[in-house]
Amino acid sequence: MTTPNPHFPPQQQPATLAQPTSAATLYRATYLHTPRNPFTHPDALDAQSDGGLLVQDGVILAAGPFADIRVAHPDAPVTDLRGGLLLPGFIDTHVHYPQVRVIGGLGLPLLDWLDQCALPEEARMADLAYARGVARDFIGGLIGAGTTTALVFGSHFAGAVDAFFEEATRTGLRAVTGLVVSDRLLRDELHTTPQRAYDEGRALIERWHGAGRTLYAVTPRFSLSASEGILDACAALMRDFPGLRFTSHINENTREIQTVRDLFPGARDYLDTYERAGLVGRHSVLAHNVHPTDRELSVMAAHRCTAAHCPCSNSALGSGFFPLRRHLDAGVHVSLGSDVGGGTGFSLLKEGLQAHFMQNLMPGGVPLSPAHLLYLATLAGAEALDLPHTGSFEPGRAFDAVHLRPAPGTPLDAVFRHAASPERALAAAFATGTPADVARVWIGGDTVLGD
Ligand SMILES: O=c1[nH]c(=O)c2nc[nH]c2[nH]1
Ligand SMILES: [Zn+2]
């Protein structure tokens, strides 16, 4: 892309860190990652057709051509992953936990889809046993798609959020989530009060923020359903507990935007409803932003907040074409989200493909290479969530990885066996890969799927 994003300079890391002192494993694979942002660095893709990643205690110690790593570490046991593609684990920056069982409500615009599909299901999360089952389905879906970190829209019920954190902890997923809060225009049982939003949020933060791999995200559903009082309670949590993340929705659908305008007559625009409350900052991720104004883009860039682009959801709900070029030109950071259940599944491969299609089809769209798609599905999310130990295979980062190994006889297997380069194989993975091609997933060096 044309405009450098000054907010996330590439990490300068030595090629090899300290020598291992105890058992390390050398993974041999065709691997690809984007240690840099390809929108600002043309040679951002690092592809090794016969690569080696030396991993100890869940951390990558060395990365490069297998032969080089082998010479330096002749005794490390080798795990041979050749025959597929090894990528950094995917990072989904917008996905709804209580909606996994209502994926596929096609054909409705946002507000009708919420009324008819999403909110009735979200009301069921009051039942803790039900919520526990949903948490299993949801996290199984994420990991099964190769996602190792997710910014998750939680539930309106504190017990269901506890259930999510418990399941995330059990499985090892890196998860950032929180209580969803609203006090109008949804359904009565999903409404809360500012005081209760603060009290329940605080209790969850004290239990889960920074516990193991979990972090807390303050989460008003959207300004349409959140009064100034609720937004102020959210801001109070952000002030009282430094290091929290913030997430919500913005500028998704024209009817939604008009309703927000009517509800906040003093606000300059949609972003201003969050901005006035002090909720727009480096740790803010706002989903969709399909219809932003120039002022909103410049304020988002100035505050270094992220727009989570959810192309399958935007297509399924008919929300519109995401103006990626305007975001990049304004210097707004962009990451990728599946937006299950408005989105159509957990695979960030599919989201990457849909992003590619939409940019191809829209006037002034940004041509997206395989490197752009991989970046959006991995490092861009790590940057959005300020998790610098994830997102790529640079030494010093956690070994969060997905091994794509299509079944013999499938078209993707044929492409992998005959691809002229790893980059061609990567393009095919985005074009035709699915969760069925995910053979193994690691988080922090632990195998969480496959063997
Ligand atoms: O895509 C969306 N999914 C949701 O659940 C939602 N809630 C508010 N705005 C929303 N947009
Ligand atoms: Zn959403």
From TrEMBL:
Transmembrane segments: none annotated. Its cofactor is Zn(2+). It catalyses: guanine + H2O + H(+) = xanthine + NH4(+). Residues 51-76 form the Aminodeoxyfutalosine deaminase/Imidazolonepropionase-like composite domain. InterPro entries: Amidohydro-rel (IPR006680), Guanine_deaminase (IPR014311), Metal-dep_hydrolase_composite (IPR011059), Metal_Hydrolase (IPR032466), Metallo-dep_hydrolases (IPR051607), MQNX/HUTI_composite_N (IPR054418). It is an enzyme of class 3 (hydrolase). The keyword Zinc applies. Pathway: Purine metabolism; guanine degradation; xanthine from guanine: step 1/1. It comes from the Bacteria. Catalyzes the hydrolytic deamination of guanine, producing xanthine and ammonia. Keywords: Hydrolase, Metal-binding, Zinc. This is Guanine deaminase. Its EC number is 3.5.4.3.
